[in-house]
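Hi all, a correction to my earlier message: I attached the wrong file for FCP1 homology domain-containing protein. Here's the right sequence:
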Amino acid sequence: MFQNKKLVCFDLDGTLIDSVGIWNQVDAALIHELSGIKANLKLIQQQRDLQLTAFRHLPDPYLEYCGYLKELYGFELNKEDVKNRRYSISRHFLDHVVELKPQAELIIQALKKQEIPLALTTTTSLFNVQRYQDNNQNINAKISFDDDFALILTRENVQNIKPHPEIYLNVLEHFKIEAKDCLIIEDSLIGVEAANNAGIEVVAIYDQYSAHEIELIKARANYFVQDFTELLRHIA
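and the right structure:
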């Protein structure tokens, strides 16, 4: 799995950090605040996944997603203000609630010990990554994004979000390596598809919020592991 690899790329949300459910809570709080409606968390996630996929070719898919929420739930605010309010609500969760996945720091340490460079390849925003690094002690007490990763690519670095392969093609170009030299670790179907579309081997790691797509994820990933404890066994 890791043999002869010159680079390992990690997705962030749902892969390194346990955050997908947090965004469901953020959106639920946003919807309730602006409409009074108590939306189902599972439905929120399904709506968000579908809309972000549909809007992936636009300059700001998350802005368009906020516009979708505005129309669906009848918000009075415009979509720009909805987006601003969404991120205001998210700050408490980003700073105090989000945690690393169990053993995530150990997999990073093990790969660094093998002298394999690491990249963080996420379609979340740089704002979120910096907030985790600066304010979230659950995360920054265990890993350092700046020190542990040789390259950090976020939503601001690409025109097309996953499942488009742009972020992974950019990684290959940056490190001047071929697809066979790289390994990607993802949790979601769109992440696995982005790796597939870039022609790079991908390990899918289980996340409860991707469980509804688990069979497709397993079918399209080169490897599947239940958690980082299992993945650690594959490092020499």
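Sorry for the mix-up. The CA atoms of residues 53 and 163 lie 8 Å apart.
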